[in-house]
Design goal:
Length: about 400
């Protein structure tokens, strides 16, 4: 029986640190991981970078990743020659990720979360926009794609499809280091070390094939494989959403421990706001290919400044009868990304929409310290009747 075959009772994810998530003592095959000295937690998921990675180029004040004007339009189908209007999957996205933090990314299906992740990994190539990693532009002489991918890795939602069915567990983990020039013996040794760190004893699991391990164990293999190139940034795209709740809790705690152990930075994509609340230092909310709101996790999840974020929070299931809503806070489907509405893209579903929302597109503007929102209602002088009277102090 592997660690994911032993399921502790389900616990409330909303109470981290108070029995909210299964701790690492619930993982019988997991070596206890000791945090790097000098990396106290920022929040549930973060650690300030005080011990600089030798690969660091700009110090802790320089973002590890900066995305500027990222655009990806997919060709549509139909029309006279089989080509229709483009689908605006990602339509001008800007954000930064600081070293040592976890940036949670949320939004409805089709909002552009996973497409953004694929663009960051260069699985798909952006139509426009720049990706800057620790001060170096991706594609420049200073940072080619191979060097970038050694430092940025991704864990996907589908743990089975992510693994080659013809490779054993240890071969899958060793594959990346071998492709980047490590000897077979050294790559296998690294694979065994990482398998132990994610709670899978190499003698028991190393020779198995993907179909011979559970879903939770496969996802641990994927995490070990992502760590095999010693990356600085991990992109986790719905990495726990396919797991049952008890295994999900174990994997989340494993990710938290590994982050501290290796001094990692995470981009954590999820539809589950409770999980994002536990993992994230900052949260970015996406809607219809754009960023709707971004800021500190506590501010976003306790006092959102964009109506879409508030609606997402209100639509979360609650066990409290007093907190249940008679009507859905978010009605209807998002507009077609082929032809998004003018002005604010959310105005067709927003109960606070005014004339300015229908005619003028909002910028992603400061609404509180380190907190940005693309909403006229949150910005003084926007022309919205509910906008604040006094601008945010500089």
């Amino acid at each position: 029986m592997g660690p994911d075959a032993q399921h502790p009772a389900h616990r409330d994810l909303r109470q981290p640190g108070r029995g909210g998530l299964a701790r690492h003592d619930d993982l019988p095959d997991l070596d206890l991981l000791q945090p790097v000295v000098g990396r106290p937690a920022l929040g549930h998921g973060g650690a300030p970078v005080t011990d600089l990675d030798p690969r660091d180029r700009g110090g802790p004040a320089q973002p590890l990743l900066t995305v500027d004007g990222l655009v990806k339009h997919f060709p549509g189908k139909g029309g006279l020659f089989g080509k229709g209007p483009a689908v605006r999957a990602v339509d001008g996205v800007d954000f930064s990720v600081m070293k040592g933090e976890t940036l949670g990314v949320v939004g409805e299906s089709g909002c552009g979360k996973s497409t953004t992740a694929r663009l960051l990994m260069q699985i798909s190539k952006q139509d426009k926009g720049d990706i800057v990693f620790d001060g170096e532009l991706l594609g420049s002489r200073a940072l080619d794609l191979k060097a970038y991918r050694r430092q940025v890795q991704m864990v996907f939602q589908d743990s089975y499809a992510s693994l080659n069915p013809r490779l054993t567990v240890e071969e899958s983990v060793a594959f990346g280091p071998r492709a980047h020039g490590l000897s077979a013996a050294a790559a296998l040794s690294r694979a065994h070390d990482l398998l132990r760190r994610v709670g899978l004893e190499p003698r028991r699991f190393g020779g198995r094939y993907p179909h011979e391990v559970s879903g939770g164990q496969r996802q641990r293999v994927n995490i070990a494989r992502a760590l095999a190139l010693e990356p600085r940034l991990l992109i986790l795209d719905e990495a726990v959403s396919a797991l049952d709740k008890s295994v999900e809790a174990q994997v989340l705690n494993l990710l938290t421990d590994l982050k501290r152990e290796f001094g990692l930075t995470y981009i954590f994509i999820s539809h589950d706001l409770n999980v994002v609340r536990f993992m994230s230092d900052r949260v970015m909310v996406m809607y219809l290919g754009r960023v709707a709101e971004i800021g500190p996790a506590d501010a976003i999840l306790k006092a959102p400044r964009h109506p879409y974020t508030a609606a997402l929070l209100a639509s979360q299931p609650s066990t409290d009868p007093e907190a249940r809503l008679e009507e859905a806070p978010l009605s209807g489907d998002p507009p077609n990304p082929i032809n998004p509405p003018p002005g604010c893209r959310f105005h067709t579903r927003c109960q606070f929409a005014a004339e300015v929302c229908r005619t003028r597109e909002p910028g992603l503007d400061p609404v509180a310290p380190a907190h940005l929102a693309a909403c006229h209602m949150a910005v003084a002088g926007s022309g919205h009747p509910k906008a604040p009277a006094i601008p945010l102090a500089a």
